[in-house]
């Protein structure tokens, strides 16, 4: 399989339908690589990937690091208290510094919405958004779509209920954009204070109760209650939230019998999702984590390999 270059991926808007499907198809091949005894191909040998994570992350940061290493790239991680931003360096100067080191790809996670686009305008490297504030998390949406396609065999025609703190969720925003592009129906469910203001532009139907959103759904995606981004006025108490919006077995029974349960993580167990659902037979939460490495390998391949280069996974 050869590729079309992906210059940047800071938003799902950087993808058209054909490119999104190309990433998913390529991730299928890379998933096979990640399951081999020797999980490595030389596809990005000589390329440099810098993971610049200025906000906490377990899944995204680790999977981008593994993805780069499994493709044979040189991978460097910076960010947080170990980087010079903690000494007052501006993001502009940090980016100029990374650019001077000839990074091929900069993966960025930042608390500020728009940080990935800010960096994109100031570097020659390809920039991949690993989650910026309340804006977007495009590789999460790709890995979610990939997980759905592997579990249910298709994306087109699926009904996907995305439930919880939608307003503050970059995951919900990117998923709504990508799933609409790929022909799925998206429903948002949550308290009115946590539903997005720009719901029409995201192409989603909104429900202020979870039950009607779950009825007949193929996919139930629960979102984390983001206590760090919530004003107390938006939500009475976590206990009340769990009572009216938490996913339990009784509510899950409203979805299709073969519906899958997803969560981007990290989970607040007992708040947005009960243990028996998170760990139950319909949960694909750890499949999402596995998918993350393969999908991020595909994204790095499209951003950093030479035009016409094969994926090297045969
Ligand atoms: N889903 C996700 O972005 O998880 P992390 O914050 O652990 O990267």
Secondary-structure blueprint:
Layout: H1 17-34, E1 48-53, H2 59-70, E2 74-78, H3 91-100, E3 105-110, H4 115-120, E4 126-132, H5 138-152, E5 159-163, H6 170-181, E6 185-189, E7 204-207, H7 210-214, E8 219-222, H8 238-245, H9 249-252, E9 260-262, H10 275-278, H11 285-304
Parallel strand pairs: 1-2, 1-3, 3-4, 5-6, 5-8, 6-7, 8-9
The site of phosphoric acid mono(formamide)ester has 10 residues, from helix 2.
Detailed description of the structure:
The protein is α/β, with parallel strands linked by helices. The chain is about 35% helix and about 15% strand. It is built from eleven helices and nine strands. The protein has helices at about 15-35, 60-70, 90-100, 115-120, 140-150, 170-180, 210-215, 240-245, 250, 275-280, 285-305; strands spanning about 50-55, 75-80, 105-110, 125-130, 160-165, 185-190, 205, 220, 260. The strands form two sheets. A five-stranded parallel beta sheet has the order 7-6-5-8-9. Strand 3 (about 105-110), helix 4 and strand 4 (about 125-130) form a beta-alpha-beta unit. Helix 1 (about 15-35) crosses helix 11 (about 285-305). The longest helix is centred in the C-terminal third of the chain and has 20 residues, at about 285-305. The protein is globular and about 50 Å long. About 50% of the residues are buried. The mean pLDDT is about 95. Bound molecules: phosphoric acid mono(formamide)ester. Phosphoric acid mono(formamide)ester binds next to helix 2.
């Amino acid at each position: 399989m050869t590729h079309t270059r992906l210059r940047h991926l800071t938003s799902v808007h950087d993808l058209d339908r054909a490119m999104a499907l190309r990433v998913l198809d390529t991730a299928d091949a890379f998933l096979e690589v990640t399951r081999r005894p020797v999980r490595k191909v030389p596809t990005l040998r000589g390329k440099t990937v810098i993971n610049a994570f200025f906000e906490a992350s377990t899944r995204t940061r680790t999977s981008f690091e593994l993805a780069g290493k499994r493709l044979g790239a040189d991978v460097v991680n910076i960010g947080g208290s170990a980087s010079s931003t903690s000494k007052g360096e501006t993001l502009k100067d940090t980016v100029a510094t990374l650019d001077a080191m000839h990074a091929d790809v900069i993966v960025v996670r930042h608390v500020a919405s728009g940080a990935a686009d800010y960096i994109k305008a100031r570097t020659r490297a390809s920039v991949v958004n690993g989650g910026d504030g309340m804006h977007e998390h495009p590789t999460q949406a790709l890995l979610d779509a990939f997980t759905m396609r592997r579990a249910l065999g298709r994306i087109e025609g699926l009904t996907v209920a995305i439930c919880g703190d939608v307003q503050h969720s970059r995951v919900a925003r990117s998923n709504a954009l990508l799933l609409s592009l790929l022909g799925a129906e998206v429903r948002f469910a949550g308290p009115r204070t946590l539903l997005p203001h720009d719901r029409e532009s995201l192409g989603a139907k909104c429900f202020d109760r979870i039950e009607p959103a779950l009825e007949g759904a193929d996919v139930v995606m629960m979102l984390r209650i983001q206590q760090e981004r919530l004003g107390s006025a938006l939500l009475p108490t976590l206990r009340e939230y769990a009572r009216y919006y938490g996913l339990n077995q009784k509510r899950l029974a409203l979805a299709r019998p073969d519906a899958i349960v997803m969560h981007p993580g990290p989970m607040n167990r007992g708040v947005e999702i009960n243990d028996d659902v998170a760990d139950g037979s319909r949960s694909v939460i750890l499949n999402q984590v596995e998918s993350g490495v393969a999908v991020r390998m595909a994204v790095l391949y499209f951003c950093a390999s030479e035009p016409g280069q094969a994926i090297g996974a045969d």
